[in-house]
């Protein structure tokens, strides 16, 4: 039976501000899951803390709303315990690249097979609009008392440098395009990072919906020119096809160059993909083959009477001295 | 005692000594002391050997073996009268001021002693001082003997030969004790069983050391060590390894860790034994189990080294949410980072086990030394109020069974469990009878394999129940879905700030501790040793157990009766039982390895019974049976201050 979009909606009250970019991302996630016809009981949406991290409560799959900055390690534990689950992580830019930066970087080294979506609006919304790690130096959204004195992180470049094997950017009000990206990110074998440009109508009066639509960015004919463009429409190909060293190097370099395009001409789409890198699950199975055949969550550990199934006699035998 | 420069094989030689003694049927207790350093600093290993049960270390050294000067300077004067020092005579001219790793205060004390005795501040001088105090000094020219052994095997490389120094020192010690040479040779062959050539060369080194000692010093030392007959199998184990094995048996299938002393050895053991044998012998008794076993011939534990302890604990909680018995192992500084994660597990009723290896704090503290300074922190780590279990084991046998229990408590009551294992246990090696795996039972609590109660596809994970424990379905269970959040939540796991719901949820979570208090038998929570009525009642927890039991025995022969309350489950605290015992006590003494007697504070808080007399120690070295014996004796005689601070240890 095909999953309908309405099957993925919950009755939990959504308290995001009217016009929030989170709605576009939420819709895209639900549309993607419906289109993929996932089993909601086999799907887990994990989030951190912040406005966007309330998302799991609005999606009718298993939902785990965790701690500020910790969505990724929670999700890693969930996925490694049960690699058969479909795991999607959502969180804000402050959650992922401020307080959770250590996990953002180090999870790239592991390449666990899951998708991480960052709602990137350049401010901390829930605490009333402070500067987030993606807000540029000197920028002053209306809630800041004075211009930002920190430089912005380049999330795409950071992801590539950290080892993410699928790196893309989307825009929250291009819902169909975003939905397609989410499907690709979930299908990707390995760790996928999707940075989503998201207006915060309450606190970010710079990168607004109108800004991204092209307000003040006129073409030769004087019409507003949207500030985003789709990579796939330019013939850009970020995918590693044959895993030759030179090819990987070239794809990484072009993706990093693209990651610097921001502002009036901002690319959205897939910057980089390499499915030749073994996933963490495959690496674990390389260490212990039965991880693949019987991962932790599918292992029985005891008989019905409580007798343990593990037999440690061999370990004990090695330690016998008499 | 064997001492030497860290990284020079002190650990290996002590292990070899202990294993050779254990192979002769003797009981062994080994204690390792080392600096937070890879190579160059002083380290030593103390091994106590006996025919009967040994539970602790002692301060006096009967025999000191070494091949470097620092050990001599630091420990020569700890050797008892009639004891022995075996050393390399090439070291004689080494001066005290040439050893930069000796702390200046230690150096000045030694200088003063030597100059008072009119002796030179060198190895020769300090050994002369020891000799005057009745210690036998045995110079053994290791290098000469080694060269002869090398020549026989065509081995001239000095560095290869030097690697046998440890074997030589151990063999010389055993020779002096007239211990069976063949037992020692067999032990060394076993140690190097993967390298037959090395094994034979080492066995010859043993022979050569025996020959030299017999020829030169035969019959000069009055102590004897003779092999014993043993009933049943015996193990020689280290604390970290015991925890690891018990975790595999208990069904732990996800272990996360960030490297930290003295915890990492456990995770490394698990990583190198991550394939788990499953027991198929009695499969026919249960068709369902038989099918599972046939499908999955082996189990495995996923061991993940994380980027920090925040990730370690949150990954483990993720594993718990997915229905897998999960744990993480750490020590004080790492545990500090886990505080927020613990609160999440408490709030969301997620089973997770944290093995907390207790070392000297605060901050980086004494990273490789022992202390019980984290009890209060383990009890209260995290903001807000949530239920957690805190347990502490007293010896390696308890460590084994308590580790299994920690997972049972954690799943049955759906709470985080903190299992404190003192550094003194983690790094102790001792002989033990075989663990009885048949005693071990796994209790997963109210654990659903399928959800049948979902309404509109939604499952009430935090369902109102009379006990406060709700049926738990792991993420991925068919038949329904639910949510988790660190926010206060309703039965489905959705955020709720409703005051009525808040009251209900707080009562539900905290009430699980009362439930556990009613359900868990006292035998699992408290040990009581000694006569019902005694001159002194000792109350303590953790690794002080061994020293207390040994001291109790010695005091008994002095006509002083002592009984001992050992608290193993500190939260929920066995209030009623402990209060009853304490109210009958004549003189209560709190014994702990920390500054403020943390358990004594907990006892007072729970039972309203004040404990005035304390014996504490916080210099980073475990309590010895001797200093505790002296302390209790002093207390009995009414000569002790209210807070008696023990200071022994190098």
Give descriptors for this structure:
heterodimer, A: about 325 residues, alpha/beta, Rossmann fold, eight-stranded mixed beta sheet, two-stranded antiparallel ribbon, 11 helices, globular, B: about 650 residues, Pyruvate-ferredoxin Oxidoreductase, domain 3, 4 domains, about 20% strand
General description of the model:
The complex is a heterodimer of chains A (322) and B (650). Chain A is globular. In chain A, 32% of the residues lie in helices and 15% in strands. Chain A is α/β, with parallel strands linked by helices and 322 residues long. Chain A starts with 20 loop residues before the first helix and ends with a helix. Chain A has a single domain (5-283), classed as Rossmann fold, CATH 3.40.50.970. The mean pLDDT of chain A is 97. The longest helix of chain A has 15 residues, at 21-35. In chain A, 53% of the residues are buried. In chain A, the strands form 2 sheets. Chain A has an 8-stranded mixed β-sheet, sandwiched between helices. Chain B is of the alpha/beta class. Chain B has 4 domains: 2-217, Pyruvate-ferredoxin Oxidoreductase, domain 3 (3-Layer(aba) Sandwich); 236-439, Rossmann fold, CATH 3.40.50; 446-520, no CATH class; 525-645, Rossmann fold (3-Layer(aba) Sandwich), CATH 3.40.50.920. In chain B, strand 4 (61-66), helix 2 and strand 5 (79-87) form a beta-alpha-beta unit. In chain B, helix 1 runs parallel beside helix 7 (165-176), helix 10 runs parallel beside helix 17 and helix 20 crosses helix 23 (625-636). The longest helix of chain B is centred in the first third of the chain and has 22 residues, at 196-217. The N and C termini of chain B lie close together (12 Å). The model of chain B has no long low-confidence stretch (mean pLDDT 94). At the A-B interface, strand 2, helix 2, helix 4, helix 10 and helix 11 of A face helix 1, strand 7, helix 10, strand 9 and helix 12 of B. Strand 2 (62-65) of chain A pairs parallel with strand 18 (483-485) of chain B, so a sheet runs across the interface.
């Amino acid at each position: 039976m095909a999953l309908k979009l309405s099957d993925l909606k919950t009755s939990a009250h959504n308290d995001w501000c009217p016009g929030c970019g989170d709605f576009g991302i939420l819709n895209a996630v639900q549309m993607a899951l419906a289109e993929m016809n996932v089993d909601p009981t086999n799907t887990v949406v994990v989030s951190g803390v912040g406005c966007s991290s309330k998302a799991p409560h609005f999606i009718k799959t298993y939902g785990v709303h965790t701690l500020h900055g910790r969505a990724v390690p929670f999700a890693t534990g969930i996925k490694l315990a049960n690699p058969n689950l479909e795991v999607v992580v959502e969180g804000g830019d402050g959650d992922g690249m401020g307080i959770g930066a250590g996990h953002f970087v180090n999870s790239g080294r592991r390449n666990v097979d899951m998708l991480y979506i960052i709602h990137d609006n350049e401010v901390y919304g829930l605490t009333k609009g402070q500067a987030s790690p993606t807000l540029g130096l000197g920028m002053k959204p209306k809630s800041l008392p004075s211009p930002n004195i920190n430089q912005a992180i380049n999330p795409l470049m950071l992801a590539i440098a950290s080892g993410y094997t699928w790196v893309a950017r989307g825009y929250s009000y291009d819902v169909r395009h975003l939905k397609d990206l989410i499907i690709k990110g979930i299908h990707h074998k390995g760790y996928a990072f999707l940075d989503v440009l998201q207006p915060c109508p309450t606190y970010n009066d710079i990168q607004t919906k109108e800004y991204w639509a092209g307000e003040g960015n006129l073409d030769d004919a004087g019409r507003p020119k949207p500030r985003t463009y789709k990579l796939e429409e330019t013939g850009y190909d970020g995918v590693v096809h044959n895993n030759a060293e030179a090819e990987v190097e070239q794809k990484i370099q072009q993706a990093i160059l693209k990651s610097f395009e921001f502002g009036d001409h901002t690319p959205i789409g897939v910057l980089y993909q390499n499915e030749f890198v073994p996933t963490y699950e495959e690496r674990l199975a390389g260490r212990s083959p039965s991880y693949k055949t019987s991962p932790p969550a599918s292992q029985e550990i005891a008989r019905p009477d409580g007798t343990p199934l593990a037999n440690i006699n061999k370990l004990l035998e090695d330690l016998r001295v008499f | 005692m064997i001492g030497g420069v860290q990284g020079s094989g002190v650990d290996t030689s002590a292990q070899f000594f202990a294993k050779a003694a254990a192979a002769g049927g003797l009981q062994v207790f080994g204690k390792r002391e080392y600096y937070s350093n890879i190579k160059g600093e002083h380290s030593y290993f103390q091994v106590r050997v006996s025919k009967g049960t040994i539970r602790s270390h002692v301060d006096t050294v009967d025999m000191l073996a070494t091949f470097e000067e620092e050990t001599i300077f630091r420990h020569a004067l700890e050797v008892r009268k009639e004891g022995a020092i075996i050393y390399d005579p090439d070291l004689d001219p080494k001066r005290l001021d040439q050893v930069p790793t000796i702390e200046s205060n230690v150096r000045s004390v030694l200088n003063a002693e030597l100059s008072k005795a009119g002796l030179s501040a060198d190895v020769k001088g300090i050994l002369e001082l020891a000799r005057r105090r009745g210690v036998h000094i045995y110079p053994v020219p290791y290098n000469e003997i080694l060269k002869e052994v090398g020549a026989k095997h065509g081995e001239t490389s000095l560095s290869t030969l030097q690697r046998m120094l440890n074997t030589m020192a151990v063999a010389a010690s055993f020779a002096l004790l007239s211990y069976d040479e063949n037992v020692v040779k067999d032990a060394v062959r076993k140690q190097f069983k993967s390298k037959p050539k090395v094994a034979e060369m080492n066995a010859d080194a043993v022979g050569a050391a025996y020959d030299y000692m017999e020829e030169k010093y035969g019959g000069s030392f009055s102590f004897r060590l003779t092999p014993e007959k043993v009933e049943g199998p015996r193990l020689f184990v280290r604390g970290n390894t015991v925890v690891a094995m018990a975790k595999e048996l208990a069904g732990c299938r996800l272990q996360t860790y960030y490297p930290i002393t003295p915890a990492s050895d456990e995770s490394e053991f698990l990583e190198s034994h991550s394939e788990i044998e499953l027991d198929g012998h009695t499969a026919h008794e249960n068709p369902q189990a038989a099918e599972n076993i046939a499908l999955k011939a082996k189990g495995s534990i996923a061991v993940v080294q994380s980027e920090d302890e925040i990730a370690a604990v949150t990954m483990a909680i993720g594993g718990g949410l997915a229905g897998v018995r999960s744990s993480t192992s750490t020590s004080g500084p790492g545990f500090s980072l886990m505080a927020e994660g613990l609160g999440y597990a408490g709030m969301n009723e997620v089973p997770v086990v944290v093995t907390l290896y207790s070392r000297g704090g605060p901050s980086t503290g004494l990273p490789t030394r022992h202390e019980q300074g984290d009890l209060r922190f383990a009890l209260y780590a995290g903001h807000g109020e949530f239920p957690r279990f805190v347990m502490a084991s007293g010896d390696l046998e308890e460590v084994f069974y308590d580790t299994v229990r920690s997972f049972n408590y954690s799943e049955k009551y759906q709470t985080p469990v903190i299992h404190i294992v003192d550094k003194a246990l983690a790094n102790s090696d001792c002989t033990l009878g075989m663990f009885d795996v048949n005693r071990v039972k796994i209790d997963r609590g109210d654990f659903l394999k399928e959800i049948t109660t979902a309404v509109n596809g939604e499952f009430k994970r935090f369902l109102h129940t009379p006990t406060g424990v709700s049926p738990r379905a792991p993420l991925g269970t068919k038949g329904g879905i639910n949510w988790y959040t660190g926010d206060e939540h309703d039965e489905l796991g959705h955020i709720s700030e409703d005051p009525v719901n808040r009251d209900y949820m707080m009562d539900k979570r905290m009430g699980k501790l009362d439930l556990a208090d009613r359900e868990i038998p006292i035998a699992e929570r408290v040990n009581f040793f000694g006569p019902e009525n005694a001159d002194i009642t000792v109350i303590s927890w953790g690794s002080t157990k061994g020293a207390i039991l040994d001291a109790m025995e010695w005091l008994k022969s002095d006509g002083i009766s002592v009984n001992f309350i050992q608290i193993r489950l500190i939260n929920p605290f066995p209030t009623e039982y402990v209060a009853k015992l304490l109210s009958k006590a004549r003189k209560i003494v709190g014994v702990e390895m920390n500054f403020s007697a943390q358990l004594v504070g907990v006892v007072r808080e729970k039972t309203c019974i004040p404990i005035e007399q304390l014996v504490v120690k916080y210099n980073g070295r475990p309590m010895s049976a001797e200093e505790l014996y002296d302390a209790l004796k002093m207390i009995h005689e009414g000569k002790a201050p209210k807070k008696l601070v023990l200071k022994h240890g190098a």
